[in-house]
Structure formats: C-alpha cells, structure tokens
Prior knowledge:
Blueprint: H1 8-19, H2 25-38, H3 57-71, H4 76-80, E1 82-85, E2 88-91, H5 101-113, E3 120-124, H6 130-138, E4 143-148, H7 151-163, E5 169-172, E6 186-191, E7 196-197, H8 206-209, E8 218-219, H9 226-238, E9 239-248, H10 254-263, E10 266-273, E11 279-286
Parallel strand pairs: 3-4, 3-6, 4-5, 6-9, 7-8
Antiparallel strand pairs: 1-2, 9-11, 10-11
Helix pairs in contact: 1-2, 1-3, 5-6
Amino acid sequence: MAVNLQTIKDIRNYLARELRDTYPQEEINAITNIINYTIAGIKKLHFLPENRLPVSREVEEKIVAICNELKKGKPIQYILGETTFYNCKIKVDCNTLIPRQETEELVDLIIRENMGFCGNLIDIGTGSGCIAIALAVNLPESKITGIDISEGAVNKARENAKLNNVSITLFKTDILKPDLQMIDKVDIIVSNPPYVRNSEKQYMHKNVLDFEPCSALFVPDNDPLVYYQAIIELAKSILNPEGKIYFEINETMGDPLFQLLRSNGYTGIKIVKDINSKDRIIKGKKNG
C-alpha cells in the first residue's frame, strides 16, 4: 500500500495500521502523540483524529522512516534521541535507560519532602542524569552530584545538564568499588540501581531487551540486592547523620529492603507504592 500522508489524521491511521502487530493500541496512541508533537509540531490541543492540518513531504518521509524503525522494536525515544522527564528535555542513547514514569514519581517525592533543600545530594547510577537534573531544576539551592560506571552515560548526563542549564558534578566510578576520595559528604542519597532479576527477562518486552543497556537493568537472582547493599555500605562513609536515602525498587523486594535498612540503623523507613499500586520506592533516615 502506497504511503500518502497529507494530514494529521493520515499519520494517525498510518501508524495504527503499520504498528498494530508490534504494539498494543494504547502504546500506539502514545507513540503517535510523541511523533505528532516532535516531528509534525502539532500541539496536544490538535490531537484529534478528524484534524486536517496539512503534512509536508519532509515530515511524511521522516514518519515513514521512524515507523520502519519502530517495527523493528526500537523504542521511539531512541529513534528520536530524546524524551521528556519531569518537564526536562533529556537526550538518550544506547548508553542510557529510557526514563520511566515510576522514576518521575521518585523525583516528585524527593522534591515534595525537601522543598528549599540547600545541602548536598548524590544520585548513584545517574545514567542520562534525568534524576539529578530534575532535582537540580526543582531544588536550585542544592549541590548535586551524579555518578555512574558508564563513561557513555556520564557524557550523556553532562550533555543533558547543559541542555537544561543546571550545574551538577558528574563523574565515573563503580559503586561496587567506589573511590571515597572523590565523593563528598551528602545529606541525601538517591538511586535507581539495577533491580530486575535475570529470571524476570522472560516477562520483558523485546524493545527493552534488544535496545536498553542490560548492565543498567539486571541483577543475579541469587544476589538481587547487590547494589542496594553497596550503596548502604557507602552511606556509612558519606551520608551525614539524620541524612535521607531514597531508592527505586523492584516491586517484589520491598520487605527484604525494609529489613536491610532497619538492620543498618535507619529509621522512619517507608515503602511507597507507585501509580499502579506496586511497591516502587523505599526511603529512610540515617540514625545518628
């Protein structure tokens, strides 16, 4: 079938037809809205099937090329090279995870609980820098550091910090073997570390497994808390008394992490559910 995209309605119908065997309808709708906004420059007010705004030949060619990539399973964020996270524009590539809504909920919680914060905060496993950058934008008096084992991720985080006009310190280090001389004392630790067990790969979509960095996602089944344990050990040296710790977590690991924090002297420990009512965040305060 020949492609003839003359209007926004044509784009919507074309993507619905071409992607129906690859994505569920809800995801097709979300992808279509992203494409219309990013490529065609159509605001959400105009996201209506009957819309007759014209489409240029250049836009048509871009959308066809994007659709071909989507049919291979490549995420739209990687195709476009960017996404939006907590109202920040974030560039992404194969070195970085695509930021999720659940992580936005983590950032929102930290901001709400720490308005006016002017201390030191570290984001461990910063990836694209999305958490550190969103916190820097919304807690402008804070001093924020982001660390990651991937040089590519650190470079992308630097690019994103500049893009969003925030000043954060970024450097490469391995949380399993951290260089303590490089890390200052902090008042808040936040981390969204790898937490998907290898056995859970079978439940994950092809576009995640084939395109997103496995090292940022998966942990061994026999040691699923390896990164949390390393961060809590690091916190003994860098987290100030009464300092706070915030983790994004695997929905099945709430209870073990609660016990891990409690056994390390944390108080006020709370598990927070995400928008889908799954255990997704755990927080606590260092006791003395």
